[in-house]
Amino acid sequence: MLDFDGRIRWIDTLGIIPSRCIERVDDVHGDRTLFHGCYDWHSSVHGHWALFRMDLTGSGRYHDVVNQVSKRFTEEKISAVIDELEQATQFEMPYGRAWLLRLVIEYEKWVQVNHAPLPGNWRRLGDHAAESLRAYYLGEGHRRIPDILSNQYSNDSFSIVQLFDYFRHRMDGRSLLPSKTTLPNTSWTATSTSTQRRTKTPVRSCRPSGAGSTS
Hints:
Elements: H1 7-15, H2 41-57, H3 63-70, H4 75-87, H5 95-114, H6 122-138, H7 157-170, H8 193-199
């Protein structure tokens, strides 16, 4: 983990910011059950993640605030979020749902460290988001070609990584795939670094010819 002078202070300073907005009702997603107040839905999801991440990696000075935030995750509200995602199958697809998987993983870590109760339908929320993303990429009758070059929310790199991490976190990711599904042998299928070294597969740069480096 990156270490530098003032790291903990910056984690606390920046991590606490979302606590000021997640209870608000914004004009865009104010009618949503749980994730609102931060301009858009996925920013609220991201904000919740940032708070739990801050409490796990920062000084812990805002633990009481984060503990209060955790009480937002009631089974009733989680069920409502699942219903919202089921009714609008393309809502926040794929970027926002990928952030939801990141939040599910982080909150489970926080719960474990703090010996807090995990809502009974919490994993159903994560599994539903993961299954919807799986269907988005590997649905019946189609295989979506991932967009890894766009710099917009439609870029699939982030979403695919989060989906892989969620499967690894659950350690039973294959159970979310239909029994007859065969993962395509494409460049975005996860392979270990050691395997890549053994096969010596050439890596082709995605940078346009003549493009300069970016910071």
